[in-house]
């Protein structure tokens, strides 16, 4: 006979197993739907403006991929990007996003807004030798010059100067693209990336920005990151700015640009255009 304790334990194991099985099935079903979703417009790109705090002008925007599933509603990119990386779909998604972003930059330029567009590049894709070719092909197709595109790179591992990743980053820089170190401060190779990588921009992760109003340690940390990045001639962007107070603090610290719900949420392209037109009138 099973003791009551054993029975509970078995139940727990059963449910754990069951939920893991569900999770796996859900991932497989997402994956099988992803290709179709890109083709039929469920996958689209939102844009979040970057505000220059000194001039109060929008000087850039970040492309953030979205998947609006007809039954399940919005699916978080954190979730489906991870699955796409695992099952070799990241190149396809990135091509789709860059293509949209470049078209958007050209469209805005034709309306007199010369802004730069940032796209997120998975660490995994940096090991794909076809990446520079894919990007230059899209730029050529739409006639956009490479310095208008910023690639946001997230640190994952140590950045060894002899590594394939490092060589890839050099190639991208040589082709005129600009690099931004995303989620700065959260990885395990932060200083390596600052030392070795001629990135033009550093993006302070939103965990620090959101903690800084209440926590003195985080406040000092943000200030130090800005000073360190500036001494190395990098532009500093703060992400996740949600309040006027945060904006004022960052302004006081000499931060160059901010991004966050306080300025604007990630929005469909037409809403970005409307927002940019409003800028002009001010
Ligand atoms: P990330 O690159 O660090 O992007 C910033 C995230 O913060 C975005 O979440 C953005 O919507 C959100 N955010 C912006 N302002 C605020 C704010 O004021 N408060 C808060 N709480 N959040 C804010 P999102 O769009 O859900 O994207 C999550 C992550 O998914 C991104 O983090 C990025 O790592 C990844 N991702 C998104 N699009 C792409 C893509 O096209 N390619 C790749 N490889 N990754 C992508
Ligand atoms: Ca980013
Ligand atoms: Ca981040
Ligand atoms: Ca990220």
Automatic annotation (TrEMBL):
Chain ranges of the EAL domain: 27-280
Protein name: EAL domain-containing protein
């Amino acid at each position: 006979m099973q003791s009551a304790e054993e029975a509970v334990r078995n139940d727990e194991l059963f449910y754990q197993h069951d939920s893991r099985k569900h999770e796996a099935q859900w991932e497989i079903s997402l994956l099988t739907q992803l290709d179709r979703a890109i083709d039929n417009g469920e996958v689209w790109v939102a844009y979040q403006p970057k505000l220059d705090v000194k001039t109060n002008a929008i000087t850039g925007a970040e492309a953030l991929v979205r998947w609006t599933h007809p039954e399940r509603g919005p699916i978080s990119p954190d979730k489906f990007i991870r699955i796409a990386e695992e099952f070799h779909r990241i190149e396809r998604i990135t091509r789709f996003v860059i293509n949209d972003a470049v078209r958007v930059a050209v469209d805005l330029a034709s309306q007199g807004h010369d802004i730069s567009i940032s796209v997120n590049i998975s660490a995994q894709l940096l090991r794909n030798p076809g990446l520079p070719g894919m990007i230059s092909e899209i730029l050529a197709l739409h006639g956009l010059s490479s310095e208008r595109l910023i690639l946001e790179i997230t640190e994952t591992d140590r950045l060894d100067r002899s590594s394939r990743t490092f060589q890839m980053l050099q190639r991208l820089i040589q082709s005129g693209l600009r690099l931004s170190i995303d989620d700065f401060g959260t990885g395990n190779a932060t200083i390596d990336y600052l030392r070795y990588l001629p990135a033009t921009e550093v993006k302070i992760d939103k965990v620090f920005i959101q903690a800084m109003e209440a926590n003195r340690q985080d406040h000092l940390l943000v200030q130090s990151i800005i000073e360190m990045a500036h001494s190395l001639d990098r532009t500093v962007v703060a992400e996740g700015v949600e309040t006027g107070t945060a904006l004022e603090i960052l302004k006081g610290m000499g931060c160059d640009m901010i991004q966050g719900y306080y300025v604007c949420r990630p929005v469909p392209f037409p809403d970005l255009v409307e927002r940019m037109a409003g800028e002009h009138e001010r």
